[in-house]
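Item description
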Amino acid sequence: MKKTAIFSLITIFIVSIIAGCGSNTKADPIYVSPYQFVNASTPIKVDKADSDYNVSVQLVEKGFGFPGQTVKMRPFDSTFGTLALSNVDTDESGWAYFQYHSPKDLAELKGQSTTIQAVYLNDNNETEAAQDFVLSFADQVASTKYRMVNQTTPVIVDTNSSQQQIAVYIVNDQDVGVEGETVTTSILDQRFGSISPSSVKTDNAGRASFAYVGPADITPVIGQQASITLRYESGGNTSTANVDILIVAP
């Protein structure tokens, strides 16, 4: 009995030593990045169409602003707007500033929200820090009305087959030209010439330009006048502008 008890004690002692040795194994340390984003401008309430919003965040290294570093905004669905630049460098205090531009029409986005993300990557293209920005589209959207201004009128025709440009500008509430808007023209009485094309998109200055060609022989219509109507429609709002064409003697 004594030998059995002594053997059992020795066995327990050896197992304890082995178990104790095994407990000294340590897990690999978890990497903690010294970089992080703070003071992010989120959420961003988007309540105006075709407008600019500032998106900012500060990159810090161990609690201090980290200057001269590139912060990237990950690609996102352009349905929710666009960015002037997707990559920006931090300033002397570690701030990164992006300019977000809202869609031209917010009707389909009212009450919705989406997330865009800024990241700071190391030399191995691995993410060191990430920051989400929430774009929250308001239920009640402030209306942005565009209008037509500075149409070419009157158009003076004093030679046969006269070729001229008829132009008009689409501008926003700040009188800044709006690109990519469609302007259409009414039909011109053929006795007074022709206008083409029937619709034009505005250029980056907000200008829509039509080509006018006068009658091959102005004699039958000298002293007469015709008019066309330029029309712009967007978001339920319609703007029109009249252009007079005057036929005068050579």
